[in-house]
Every structure is written in structure tokens, then in C-alpha cells.
Amino acid sequence: MSEPLTNIGELMAATVPMARTLNLSFDEVTPERAVVSLPDQGDFHNHVGGPHAGAIFTLAESASGAIVMAAFGDQLSRAVPLFVSAEVVYTKLAMGPVTATAQLGRPIAEVVAELDEGKRPEFPVDIDVTRADGAVTSRMSVVWTLRPSS
């Protein structure tokens, strides 16, 4: 999977300036799972010295985008992936580097079948953000859609 990882990581860095700004690392990307890391960077700290909630949100959203590209990149000629909504819960103090692990919430074939029927499928991506000791610091659920091209 190293070639798709490189391509998707490079694609994300090239098309999402915020991913470049935060120096996100796309550590693992498959159609079912994406792992993206945010290094500890003082410029993106909050008032208590950990990563700012906005940086954590962007990390998690970027992990969800990477999995969407891995799962549905072959559909880009006929549909545009769009972020619909997100719900995030910050559960523990994040300090130091953090990692987002995203998982696709619906079978790929089911989503593509809806697209084949002319529908605009929606699907969730669930993300856990953890700090170096493995503690989950936040959970995010993102709903994406594939908007059929005209």
C-alpha cells in the first residue's frame, strides 16, 4: 500500500493547504482506514500548551478526507466528494503529538451502488484522535456525500 499512501498523502498536501500548514503526516491510508499524525508544534498550541482544538479538528477532517479519496477516488470522474457535517467531542487534554485514526462507516460497494442508481449517497467516517500514551482525546464523526456530476 505504500504507493497509494504516497499518492494520497501528496494529493492531500497539494490540494489542502491547511494540511501542509499543519505539517500533517499521512502514515497509513487504505479504503477502510486512514491514520494521520499532527506533530507537536508551538505555533498551533492552545492556552494550556497542547494542540489547539482547530488543529485537532483539521487533523481529524484530513484523516476522513484521506479515507474518502482512498475509497472513492475511482469515482471522481462522475461524482464530487463533499463534507456534509461533523460532530466532535473533546474528551481529554491533548498534549504533544496526536494521531487521528479514521474508519469508513459504510461498505464501499453500498455507497457506489447508490451512486449507480443516480442517488447522492451519504456515508459516515468515524475518527478517534489519540495522544502518544494511547488515550483518546477526541472523537469526531463526519458525514460525507458523493454529489453526482451533471
From TrEMBL:
Tree of life domain: Bacteria
InterPro entries referenced in this protein's UniProt entry, alphabetically: DUF4442, HotDog_dom_sf
Coiled-coil region: none
Protein name: DUF4442 domain-containing protein
